[in-house]
Amino acid sequence: MTALLEAAATSGTGRRARLRRAATRVLLGNWTGAATVPSRALYPHQWSWDSAFVAIGLRHVAPRRAQRELETLLGAQWGDGRVPHIVFNPSVPLGAYFPSPDFWRSSGTDRNAGAPSAVETSGIVQPPVHALAAWLVHLADPAESRRRGFLPRVYPGLAAWHRYLATSRDLGGGGLAAVTHPWEPGLDNSPSWDAALARVEPAPRGSFRRADLDHGSPADRPTDLDYARYVRLAATYRDHSYDDARTPHAFAIEDPCFNALLIASEHALAAIAREVGADEGTHRRRAGAATGALLDRLWDPAAGVFLPRDLVTGEPITGYGVSGLVPLIVPGLPEEVAAALVRTARGPRFRLGEVHLVPSYDLTAKEFDGNRYWRGPSWFNTAWLVHRGLARHGETEAAHRLRAQALDAADRTAFAEYLEPYTGEGRGIRRFSWTAALALDLLHASGETSGAPDNTSDNASEDDVPGDDVPGGAREARSGGTPEGGAGEGGSAR
């Protein structure tokens, strides 16, 4: 632990160094020995996209541990390629979190689409940030990555993950991945899902217990009705053995954020394939096709934002969620589309630069609630994504301002889970892992960071991601003998 904290203090002085040490201390405290939990209290297991964001931050102080974070997650991958959204820690009592392993029943007798037998997981997924994270982790210390064979080990699993999303999850037949539960896009109770959820019969009252309310205010969490519908959807999927083709999906949506992250990660996977001597062309072609589908199916030029598509009704879901801004990270996005997204972000619905970070939903909408989870509060991970998108498209001043806001908020709120966008007051859990991890990454950012390797060069190198060079602190952490293990032992399903 001492070596890791010392490494965290090697870059910068004063407040910057203090914040770096504090963020590293959060990640140390939430480390279980093989992975990082989002929170010791509310989220005591490993979450999929949380671990990807954690690895992105950890690479600056402990690249070997960042590699292990992703390797642990991929160790729970299913035979069909899916990466489950929760990997359960068997030492955590069942009553500490719901839905617990006995609800999901992943390792039943039929092994549910090839679920692993040695570990219990959930059966749904989360946004595919993982290949992007793996590439950035490699760039943090390429020599150590190559020495450990990190990319050759993770590439097959990442490729299978992307194949699963491109095939089994193309429920609309239009070249985009669909989400089948509000927990899958990571924006659980967003107003964007209200109409789709309204057609879901709630699970009976009393058939589940909300452990999340033991740790958070009911005013900040999804409602009991929302939760009852979440449980119904998950149980229906489970009872159909997590078979995407056979399950009667009452909730099936093409989400802009989910697919933008898949495209960015597909570009990163092409870079990984090149590094390991595999065929990068498949990934570049898939990224290009998905970008075309994203523009054809989800871009609304009149609204100036990407809109989710409800595959049950076949119609776009109107409204302005932060998900619709995240495609700024997509390499090769037409500049006129990027410019329109920036105008929307700066307009009255999100007020970029005027309120704290990026609200998760339209500030002017009647559904907006600045305190309740994804119905309006600003989150650090989506701010990080928008920051990268702004920087990619040359919006340097706006990116710099958002970065400064995020660092100030992380420091001021003790790494809160999310913020009320008008007051900047921290909400949810404190010492939240992805907030700390992304603060570490933003401390390192030069303001030139892009979202993933571009597909414009056949000879791209490790410098494909501007601003993601090998940090001195990471090199020192490795040479200082930082262990792969760590300190400590090791809700609403996010």
Automatic annotation (TrEMBL):
Residues 482-494 have a biased composition (Gly residues). Pfam families: MGH1-like_GH. GO terms for molecular function: hydrolase activity, acting on glycosyl bonds. Residues 448-494 are annotated as: Disordered. Residues 43-435 form the Mannosylglycerate hydrolase MGH1-like glycoside hydrolase domain. Belongs to the glycosyl hydrolase 63 family. This is Trehalase family glycosidase. It comes from Streptosporangium oxazolinicum.
